[in-house]
Design goal:
By secondary structure, the chain is an alpha/beta fold. The protein is 35% helix and 21% strand. The protein starts with 5 loop residues before the first strand and ends in a 10-residue tail after the last helix. Bound molecules: 6-O-phosphono-beta-D-glucopyranose. Its EC number is 1.1.1.49.
């Protein structure tokens, strides 16, 4: 593609996200020939570092975190000269002045105007000040030239998300603002749209007539670890459901957009969020379950409880597990429950969407044909297994008529030789290309906050007396099973 010469300015250059995700992604894009010939990456932070010191750090990070393993010397030597470091105190105008000078120098060198991507991989309290600082250096700029990428969390609640959107709108046009939800960059997540909208056979079934219920489950073995400083003010509902799980839900529930452009796709997604049934305070107990992990054993290792994690409040009321039953009140989905759950320190790490179809209207086979009649189920497995499975009933080979459930499987590994790119590769490339399809629009973020506010308020206002209420290596609190069992279903897990 034709990508203009680009300067990346990464705030939080010495931080964890840059080390683990951004730099490895840029490096892999470089290796695969996706970066323009003229590009520069300027890391910035409060630590004083020379360009050379910063390069050495990034090389060590790459060697540890890149999906391609250790960097080859000859590749790194071509990449390294594009990397720079600028110490900066983002609270001072001088910082932005320095960036401008650097950008101007590159442009002079390259003899063309450059696109500039400011990437805010910093704590959210810095978003307003940095956004304002940047805007003051690019007052009447061509809006397609300057872009600002904002990491999560986008707001702490509805009010703060609105305030941040408002502040950004004072300085930038929406087409310049790239709000990250890294789940949208995942290969298997993008494929939900391909699967639904490039195949004709699904659409006639994709509604309340055929679908009984939908489950979206993102479970993690990982604990909160060193992130308690952030996590204790967040919790599973904010950290995962407000963004990642609701975005997955939108991809399952959205109507077909008229075309695959950013705003058409995002219009249909925001329609879903707007159609989702709002909870009254008295509904929360019935519709949502929270949990917090206790100490236990996981994969043969003793792991601390959440309240014992480094830096955690020993009486913390923060949930590390959340399950919610949602409804989408529109023609397509009326009456179909969408169960979502997510949690840390669970038995297995797996992100799965399970779509359960209704039962056959009448069973013609005698009862002896199989002990368990199952309904058809479509399973979109996002990670670590990357697959789509359709569960159907089949006759077991033999002289009698015995039925059992079998999977028709499309799996990435067996189908494609190439390794899937990391989500951040896709998203950084899209930001360079100016394609916002896989980024959150301001109204989407606000609708998602609006939807979960009653749950947040109920939980904050009523400390849980049962915490910790699930042990490491379990599937979460018992009430989460009860939430779905009440309706006659079970949480689905892959064998
Ligand atoms: C992040 C959350 O957004 O997503 C983390 O802040 C979580 O708490 C992570 O662990 C999960 O992402 P992935 O890509 O590992 O599924």
């Amino acid at each position: 593609p034709n990508i203009k010469p680009t300067v990346f300015i990464i705030f939080g250059g010495t931080g964890d996200l840059n080390a683990r995700k951004l730099s490895p992604a840029l490096y892999n894009l470089f290796l695969d020939g996706w970066l323009p010939d003229q590009f520069a990456i300027i890391g910035t932070g409060r630590t004083r570092l020379t360009d050379e010191e910063f390069r050495t750090k990034l090389l060590a990070d790459l060697n540890q975190f890149s999906r391609n393993g250790k960097a080859r010397k000859e590749d790194w030597e071509k990449f390294a000269p594009h990397i720079f470091y600028q110490v900066a105190d983002v609270k001072t105008p001088a910082a932005y002045e320095q960036f401008s000078q650097r950008i101007a120098a590159f442009e002079e060198d390259w003899k063309v105007p450059a696109n500039v991507i400011y990437y805010l991989a910093v704590a959210p309290e810095f978003f307003p000040i940095i956004a304002t600082g940047i805007a003051q250096r690019h007052p009447e700029d061509d809006p397609t030239r300057v872009r600002i990428v904002i990491e999560k969390p986008f707001g702490h609640d509805l009010e703060s998300a609105r305030a941040l959107n408002k502040l950004l709108a004072q300085h930038f046009q929406e087409c310049q603002i790239y709000r990250i939800d890294h789940y949208l960059g995942k290969e298997t997540v993008q494929n939900i749209m391909a699967f639904r909208f490039a195949n004709a056979i699904m659409e006639p079934l994709w509604n309340r007539n055929s679908i009984e219920h939908v489950q979206i489950s993102v479970t993690e073995q990982l604990g909160v670890g060193e992130r308690t400083g952030y996590y204790d003010n967040s919790g599973a509902l904010r950290d995962m459901i407000q963004n990642h799980l609701l975005q997955l839900l939108c991809l399952v529930a959205m109507d077909p957009p008229v075309n695959f452009t950013a705003d058409e796709v995002r219009n249909r997604k925001v329609d879903v969020l707007r159609a989702m049934r709002r909870f009254k305070p008295e509904d929360v107990r019935e519709a949502a379950v929270r949990g917090q992990y206790a100490a236990g054993w996981l994969e043969g290792k003793k792991v601390p409880g959440y309240r014992e994690e480094k830096g955690a409040n020993p009486a913390s009321n923060t949930e590390t597990f959340a399950a919610v039953k949602f409804f989408v009140d529109n023609w397509r989905w009326q009456g179909v429950p969408f169960y979502v759950r997510t949690g840390k320190r669970l038995h297995r790490s797996a992100s799965i969407i399970s779509i359960q179809f209704k039962d056959v209207p009448h069973i013609i086979f005698p009862a002896e044909t199989g002990e368990s009649w199952q309904q058809n189920r479509l399973i979109i497995s996002i990670q670590p297994e990357m697959s789509i499975r359709l569960q159907v009933q089949a006759k077991r080979p033999g002289l009698d008529m015995m039925l059992n459930t079998v999977d028709m499987v499309f799996d990435y590994q067996g189908t494609y030789a190439a390794e899937a790119p990391e989500a951040y590769e896709t998203l950084l490339l899209d930001a360079m290309l100016g394609d916002q399809t896989l980024f959150m629009r301001g109204d989407q973020v606000e609708e998602a906050w609006d939807l979960i506010m009653p749950i947040l308020n109920a939980w904050q206002g009523r400390p849980s007396l049962s915490f910790p209420n699930y042990s490491a290596d379990s599937w979460g609190p018992e009430l989460a099973e009860a939430l779905i069992a009440r309706d006659g279903f079970h949480w689905f897990t892959l064998p």
